Amino acid sequence: MQRRVGLVLAVPLLVAVSALPAAAAPTFGRPSVAALQVGLRDRGLYKGTIDGIIGPQTTRAVRKLQRRAKIGVDGVAGPKTVRALGRFSRHRLGSRPLRYGATGWDVVALEFELATHGFPSGAFDGRFGPHVDDALRRFQSWAGLPRNGVTGASTLAALRRPPPRAVLPLAWPVTKVVLGNRFGPRGDGFHAGIDLKAPVGTPVYAARAGKVVYANWAQGWGYLVVLDHGHGERTFYAYLSKIAVRLGVWVGKGVQLGSVGKSGAEEAGGPHLHFEVRVRGAVVNPLPALP
Questions:
Q1: Are the beta carbons of 157 and 93 closer than 8 angstroms?
Q2: What is d(CA 285, CA 182) in angstroms, rounded to the nearest whole number?
Q3: Which of these, 20, 64, 106, 263, is most buried using a 10 Å CB contact count?
Q4: Which domains does the chain have, with CATH numbers?
Q5: For residues 7 and 18, what is the distance between their CA atoms, to the nearest angstrom?
Q6: Partners of residue 279 on adjacent β-strands
Q7: What is the Cα Rg of the chain in Å?
Q8: Which residues contact 118 (CB under 8 A, 6 or more apart)?
Q9: Three-class SS of residue 147?
Q10: CA 195 to CA 193: how far, in whole Å?
Q11: For residue 26, what are the CA distances in angstroms to 123, 129, 203, 217, 231?
Q12: C-alpha to C-alpha distances, 183 to 194, 195, 254, nearest whole angstrom
């Protein structure tokens, strides 16, 4: 349940955070390699993460496909190898406008580009359905483009620009930092924040001063607090066991927002804080903004 507090919380608590070097922004792989990995996965040849990076698992899967297709086995996904994936590999991103209902290699590449630019659409599966359509339209709005749900030249040009990043310095929202899942590709999807492992009841603190714009239960998030810090930047604190602030108050950096729990969609993973940063609605890697 949401706990009510009587006063605006403006004076930050001092939080002693255990030292942990912040990781650099993740190096995302190539959309074309992500599409290759999905094509290999759909044929039962690849079981790794769809991360767009050519690694040992991807190379082994390519060799298996080459042996199956009875072409030269060198582990390199050249034109003959790609054609062995059949209809799935017919179109490269940009070779045709993409819209609702499309399938194939170029759709995976679009899904991967959208995710790495802050607009994940669920599993990388090469199917342009409602989740991809929503993510594409939100990206187009974010980029100042017509929200038409079609990948024209202007949308593709916007996707070639560098991904957004956090613009404000942040503090760790828990005092003892044990980093779990990081920001970026995970399994067949994309993890939009970082997970900070901690026992149930561990205090969760504001990473920066801001206004509480959400403090309640949210489907898939469990108990959730969202702070608006201005400059288009918001921080999300999810899977809480309880909430310690109320909607509309201004809180200082280091003020307790709630406590760690396992109330969200990932409760099977054990208690942790899912911490997310968004800039004008695009999810960005929090780690470069943390000390």
A1: no
A2: 8
A3: 106
A4: 1-26+166-291 (2.70.70.10), 31-159 (1.10.101.10)
A5: 30
A6: 233, 282
A7: 21
A8: 139, 142, 163, 164, 278, 279, 281, 282, 283, 284
A9: coil
A10: 7
A11: 19, 27, 28, 30, 23
A12: 5, 9, 23
* Cα distance between the two ends of the chain: 32
Ranges in the chain, pLDDT < 50: 1-25
pLDDT (tens digit, 9 = 90+) per residue, 106-133?
999 999 999 999 999 999 999 999 999 9
What pLDDT was estimated at residue 268?
A: 52
CB of 104 closer than 8 Å to CB of 86:
no
Residue entry with tokens 């094509």: 39
Is the Cβ–Cβ distance between 216 and 226 less than 8 Å?
Answer: no
Token duo for residue 182: 């990081």
- Please, are residues 275 and 237 in contact by the beta-carbon 8 Å criterion? yes
59 CB neighbour count, 10 Å cutoff? 14
